[in-house]
Write a structure and sequence with these properties.
Layout (H helix, E strand, L loop, with lengths): L4 E6 L3 E5 L5 E4 L5 E4 L1 E5 L4 E2 L19 E6 L5 E6 L3 E5 H6 L7 E2 L4 E2 L12 E7 L2 E6 L4 E5 H6 L4 H12 L8 H7 L2 E3 H6 L1 H14 L1 E5 L7 H9 L11 E3 L15 E4 L11 E8 L8 E5 H11 L1 H9 L2 E9 L2 E9 L2 E3 L5 E4 L14 H19 L4 E4 L6 E5 L3 E5 L11 E7 L1 H23 L2
Parallel strand pairs: 15-16
Antiparallel strand pairs: 1-4, 1-6, 2-3, 2-5, 7-8, 8-9, 10-11, 12-13, 13-14, 16-26, 17-28, 18-27, 19-26, 19-28, 20-25, 20-27, 21-22, 23-24
Helix pairs in contact: 6-11, 8-9, 9-10
The structure holds zinc ion.
């Protein structure tokens, strides 16, 4: 194709191929652009300057929007339907009015709705609706007009498929649960310096932590603040009544069993918090020599899902019985008494596991459950415990000095085998926490930023 310049005025989806560099650029929104030396594939109607060109016979863009064949309003005018070749996209009209994108209703700068609900007409109805090219225009009974682009509407379609996609890709991310056999395959390691310096490595680490519930950051400098620097690369350290950081070292007269050198049984941290810390980061500065001091992990969601499938009665008891979790003690002179009632296995509204609470030392002797349920609960939790400790589910490994073990504290249970310090070498770990709200937020921001820079690089 000879060198040429094209001005694309508007389109639905277009793939531009630069003939010189052979780079591809996928354009997904309507705007005017100038392209030099390109061939192009356009999905739908478009204009090229003033000159109309036919829809390309080349391969169509997979991301292309569906053709809209007709637009209909329900008799009550509460549903607007857009018919495509193989689907009908329906939108509640009250939702459309509520989500009007005009500057009076929506502030683009803050990405916030500014409609005053104190003055909003909740009985508002469309007087007319029309679709011109890729834009839907609605005239409303409250003397307002709204315009929506087709892209924007399709992105927010109420179909089950679209809602599921949003839930699994943007709201929460898909998880892969594991037993002992798969652990080695899923445990990924990330270089500390690279995580601090490269956004792509930071994203890879956080995605791995989210998906598998565990990842190791390696080559960490033996400094007390290395862990905190890592959390601040994501967001900020989650403070608890043990402070911003906690030191795991054998010490006499401790108020927490983690600070003994004896075996630390499997547990989740701080189940007595309503807002339990999301992810645990344990920096190994000094490891014990010889036997002992090994870390133990098991995937509580994996075991929970096994129970759901094979022992549904036990699963039900563990998801329905409220347990009293507590922590009473003092740290740096400050006394605390934390309490939280929650089941061992917590589900969301979809029946998916979202949190495991498990800590023998931090379970109160008050047990606010009906008498007959208590006995059944012991049977069920006995089975759950046995499975967590079984070789099929339980992994043991020894952290190296300079490792930060990062794991999902709402999903994995962790423990440690007993160890003995040798003279001059006291096992030392510094731990801190991050909340999932902050990790998810960082992942979403990074994904957007990296996608954007990737697209920009394509054209260069
Ligand atoms: Zn408006």
């Amino acid at each position: 194709m000879p060198q040429q310049s094209l001005i694309i005025k508007h389109y639905y989806k277009a793939t531009l191929v630069n003939n010189v560099t052979n780079c591809r650029l996928i354009l997904t929104t309507s705007y005017v652009t100038r392209c030099e030396g390109v061939s192009l594939t356009l999905r739908r109607k478009h204009s090229l300057g003033n000159q109309q060109i036919p829809v390309s016979k080349q391969k169509r863009v997979a991301l292309g929007n569906p053709e809209i064949n007709s637009l209909t309003l329900s008799q009550k005018r509460d549903i607007l339907a857009l018919d495509t070749d193989n689907n009908t996209l329906k939108f509640p009209t009250i939702w459309l009015r509520d989500n009007c994108q005009c500057p009076a209703c929506f502030q683009r700068h803050s990405q916030s709705r500014t409609i005053d609900w104190g003055k909003f007409d909740f009985g508002v109805k469309p007087l007319s609706a029309k679709l011109v090219e890729s834009e839907l225009t609605i005239e409303w009974s409250d003397n307002h007009r709204s315009n929506f682009t087709l892209d924007w509407l399709i992105e927010r379609s109420f179909t089950e498929e679209k809602r599921k996609l949003f839930r699994n890709k943007i709201y929460r991310f898909e998880r892969t649960t594991w037993g002992a056999d798969e652990f080695g395959k899923y445990l990924k390691k990330f270089d500390y310096k690279s995580v601090l310096n490269e956004d792509s490595t930071l994203l890879n680490w956080l995605e791995s932590l989210t998906k598998y519930g565990v990842a190791i950051v390696t080559n960490v400098p033996a400094k007390n603040n290395s862990n905190k620097i890592l959390t601040e690369r994501v967001a900020f350290t989650r403070r608890t009544h043990y402070g911003e950081e906690f030191t795991v070292i054998a010490k006499d007269g401790t108020t927490n069993v983690a600070y003994l050198s004896s075996t630390l049984p499997l547990h989740t941290d701080l189940p007595y918090y309503h807002y339990a810390p999301g992810a645990n980061l344990l920096h190994c500065l000094v490891q014990s020599q010889g036997k002992g001091g090994e870390s133990q992990l098991a995937d509580g969601f994996h075991v929970g899902n096994y129970l759901k499938l094979h022992e549904p009665e036990s699963y039900k008891i563990l998801t329905k019985t409220l347990v009293d979790w507590s922590d009473v003690g003092h740290e740096n002179g400050d006394h605390f008494h934390s309490l939280h009632q929650a089941p061992v296995l917590c589900e969301d509204e979809f029946g998916d596991l979202v949190r495991v609470n498990f800590s023998q030392p931090q379970r109160d002797s008050h047990f606010n459950a009906p008498l007959e349920q208590v006995i059944l609960w012991y049977e069920a939790v006995g089975l759950f415990t046995k499975l967590l400790y079984s070789p099929e589910n339980n992994v043991t490994f020894k952290l190296a000095e300079g490792d930060i073990l990062t794991f999902d504290n709402l999903r994995l249970v962790h423990g440690r085998s007993a160890y003995a310090d040798t003279t001059g070498r006291e096992r030392l770990l510094i731990g801190c926490y991050l909340d999932w709200d902050e990790i998810y937020s960082r992942i979403r921001v990074l994904r957007k930023q990296l996608k954007r820079s990737k697209e920009m690089n394509i054209g260069q």
